[in-house]
Amino acid sequence: MRMIxxxxxxxxxxxxxxxxxxxxxxxxxxxxxxxVKFNVADQDKMLAFYQKAFGATVQKVAVxxxxxxxxxxxxxxxxxLALVFYKxxxxxxxxSAEGPIGFYLKDAKAVDDAYASAMAAGATSKxxxxxxxxxxxATVADPEGHEIELLHLP
Length: 154
Prior knowledge:
Structural class: alpha+beta
Strand order of the largest sheet: 1-6-9-8-7
Order of helices and strands: EHHEHEEEEHEEE
Shape: globular
Largest sheet: 5 strands, mixed
Number of helices: 4
């Protein structure tokens, strides 16, 4: 799987090295996102979900102090996902301006398999796999409500 928003930190680094300098990169190559960050209320539960549902692995704990803990999950085929937990007890609410995090999948069966894996890991179905003309799409929500779109384009 690779995430919709970019090819990941490795590609960004490779582009930077190929360009020679960050200035050349900014002028000659498009920027690609390298990570998505979710604020979460239960970091352990969310970590377990993304590991079980999508095979994500912990790349590193980027920050762990009295205010915040940020865990970076590594997806070797796409963007990284940062799970941020604020230790002050603040309420986390998903806003209406958020869209889904998306995964491109290699074929229609991979959409069905990813949907089944997410559901087995504790996701909530928003739309079952379906489509037509070679397109296959499904949408689930992780245990805290972040939407995840699973997509195969013809």
